[in-house]
Design brief:
39% helix; alpha/beta; 9 strands; 3-stranded antiparallel sheet; 286 residues
């Protein structure tokens, strides 16, 4: 999907354009925008908003574009149909380009993720074989763009990348015929998710974002620490568990949040939870 963001941003925006992205959010959004001399407008989201952009949060900001991810990294939260529809209509009515990052579609647990294409064709949708299809290292994905933009994006792609590697294309075609195996992977994620929710609660992490999809849990640690980087380093050194400091995703408030990933085997997750609980007891947090 990284290449698709380059194509989308280059196709839709000019130097100095303003693109709204939510915080916490995937850090590469803002870095790629900056590299292209496009201004990322960081919009702080709240737990009440499920850490997603809303029509209210983008109101009055004079944006040229809006980028959302549902399910999102780092929170795993999702926009329902009505919320996504309202956001898209707000953008379309104000001539704001809408980009939907749907890389985690397929990795959801109770409700199916809603595609922007269920609302409109006047948007850019980005997806990848990296997550649901478990093909991270193969570097292959796809875009859906309005028909009038196809040739423009095609020309950009031919000059920037030419195409994805042939071997990756063959492997991706095979993955499209492997849904029974992929659904087994999803069952593992669901088991791991349930274990993590219970285990983290036992460890004292009670303030978490709703993990509707993806394979992350985003937790508030403000009652334990105000330095997520040092907290993460300490857990790695002491417990042997790698977590991600929230500063990667939110430069303003990420000092008080961390992200857990449960994209591992269930046995590893069980072991990790035990280590986390012991770490929290040892540090006097629990």
């Amino acid at each position: 999907s990284s290449g698709a963001f380059l194509l989308a941003f280059t196709s839709l925006f000019d130097k100095g354009s303003k693109v709204g992205i939510g915080a916490p959010g995937y850090p590469s959004y803002r870095q790629i925008l900056k590299a292209l001399e496009i201004d990322p407008i960081i919009i702080q989201t709240t737990s009440e908003e499920k850490f997603q952009l809303t029509t209210n949060s983008i109101f009055g900001r004079k944006l040229d574009g809006v980028l959302v991810a549902s399910p999102a990294n780092p929170t795993g939260s999702m926009l329902n149909f009505d919320s996504l529809k309202a956001l898209i209509e707000k953008c379309n009515n104000n001539e704001i380009s809408f980009i939907s990052d749907e890389i985690y579609h397929g990795v959801e647990y109770k409700e199916k993720a809603v595609s922007a294409l269920q609302v409109t064709d006047d948007c850019y949708v980005i997806n990848s074989f990296s997550k649901y299809f478990s093909m991270t290292g193969w570097r292959i994905g796809w875009m859906v763009v309005p028909e009038s933009h196809v040739r423009q994006v095609e020309r950009l792609a031919q000059n920037m990348f030419i195409c994805a590697p042939h071997a990756s294309q063959i492997a991706a075609a095979g993955a499209l015929e492997s849904f029974s195996e992929l659904e087994e992977n999803l069952k593992v994620y669901k088991t791991n998710r349930d274990l993590m929710i219970r285990g983290l609660s036992e460890a004292g992490f009670t303030d978490i974002a709703p993990p509707d999809g993806a394979f992350y849990i985003y937790a508030d640690i403000s009652k334990f620490s105000n330095d997520s980087l040092e907290f993460s380093k300490d857990m790695l050194k002491t417990a042997g568990v790698a977590i991600t400091p929230g500063l990667d995703f939110d430069s303003e408030r990420g000092n008080a949040t961390i992200r857990f990933s449960y994209a591992r085997s269930t046995d590893e997750i069980k072991d990790g939870i035990e280590r986390i609980v012991n770490f929290m007891i040892e540090r006097g947090y629990k």
